Amino acid sequence: MLIPADEIVKVLNKVRVAREHLNASWPPKDACVLSVMDFHWAVQDIYGLDIEMLKVSFSAEHVRGKVERYSGRARVLVRASQTPEFLRFVAVKELCHLMIDEADDWSSTGVETIKGLLKEWELQGENGTGHLNPSDPLKSEMLAEIAAIEMMYPREFRAADIAKIAANEATVQKVALQHELPPYAIEQAHRHHDILEDCWKAIEATLNGSGA
Amino acid sequence: MTNLSEREVLAARYEGLAANQGLVDVKFFLGNAGEATTEQVCREVNALYDALERGEYEPLDFGDRSI
Q1: Where are the alpha helices (DSSP H) in chain B?
Q2: pLDDT in tens, A88-143
Q3: Are A37 and B61 within 8 A, CB to CB?
Q4: Please, which residues bridge with residue B27 across strands?
Q5: Is there a contact between B38 and A140 if contact means CB atoms under 8 Å apart?
Q6: What is the largest CA-CA distance in chain B?
Q7: Looking at the partner chain, which of A29, A64, A101 has a beta carbon nearest the beta carbon of B25?
Q8: In chain A, where are the structural domains located?
Q9: 0.90 exceeded by pTM
Q10: Which of A16, A23, A107, A117 has a CA positioned 20 to 30 A from the CA of residue A209?
Q11: Distance between CA A82 and CA A91 in Å, rounded?
Q12: Across the interface, which of B41, B56, B65 has its CB nearest the CB of A118?
């Protein structure tokens, strides 16, 4: 994952704050499954935003959802024709943009953002190097995905799941069902487990006063 | 009359949202991005907005609220 560790740490700190806010306000009914609506409440409460969420009926191969930010409010738009797990994941990922993106990440020129995202994929396809220096739009998407996965599949579950899958005692699909996530999100979490663990340990060291 | 491309239509829409409603940021969740062209994605986003204008949407509520 070619995003500087300090940027990942910044995002994980925001995830930590959101989880603490949720746990202090409304302890989860099910530790394995994030309440999307409680997370929606938390983002509104922490960031002072009025967030409308809509499920829209349109046909698409590529657009799963989008988020628009205005002053003091935002709108999350999710394509209706998706599996329940993707509806949850897309909604959470778009809410995560509202949590992690700061003013210098913002751009209202949506077509330029689309071009930036697709250009990265073209480079990846041509020579495999497109993600060596991710563009700002792609970096924002990658960080939002990390945040969404962390919210919906917290680190405390991952090491044990990785070990169980390696020992053929579980499958990615079963873990995905437990957390009500698409399987690819579980795969991403496992692929980046070591980097994410290093970042979480850096956060813990800072909180404990022992970090640099 | 010149037909506008999907990207031109969408760019004009975002200019209008920025000027009239104060849009400051827009982000997209794309699937299978490696197979997409800019024009295709813009067509799909335009289709999303057309659906909104026709009222083809509902509140997204997962029914899992504790609060």
Answers
A1: 6-21, 38-53
A2: 999 999 999 999 999 999 999 999 999 988 876 555 544 444 455 667 788 899 99
A3: yes
A4: A67
A5: no
A6: 55
A7: A101
A8: 5-207
A9: yes
A10: A23
A11: 12
A12: B41
